[in-house]
Write a structure and sequence with these properties.
118 residues, alpha+beta, 2 domains, two-stranded antiparallel sheet
């Protein structure tokens, strides 16, 4: 194949389509995260960074060519759990899933069972 003019639309064919596939994969990851966590309203981001390094003709001091590199990265909000208040005991840390904010809070599952008569 001969020389082609570089344009945005040629990204889909460059490097055997690898650049376009990586961009599509980044889109899929961000889309999946939006679907998985729609209540997290922080933006998901995809960056396509194009770096261009000029190469000059040493004799004439004019631009001879340009090295162009493409970098694609994506970011999603970090996944953070709720905070658990845990009681420190000799054997480790204890928590109550029904009362994550206060380990000292008594919950119904901790109530003694009533005695059965008869």
């Amino acid at each position: 194949m001969g020389l082609e003019k570089f344009e945005l639309k040629t990204l889909s064919t460059m490097d055997g389509g690898h650049i376009a596939r990586e961009f599509a994969n980044a889109m899929k990851r961000c889309d999946a995260d939006c679907r998985d966590r729609p209540s997290v309203t922080k933006a998901r981001k995809i960056n396509l960074v194009v770096t261009m390094e000029p190469i000059s003709d040493d004799e004439a001091g004019e631009l001879d060519s340009v090295n162009v590199t493409f970098k694609i990265n994506d970011s999603v909000p970090e996944r953070v759990s709720k905070t658990y208040n845990m009681k420190a005991v000799r054997g480790g840390l204890l928590f109550n899933e029904l009362s994550p904010a206060d380990v000292h809070q008594k919950t119904l599952d901790m109530a003694p069972e009533p005695e059965r008569t008869g």
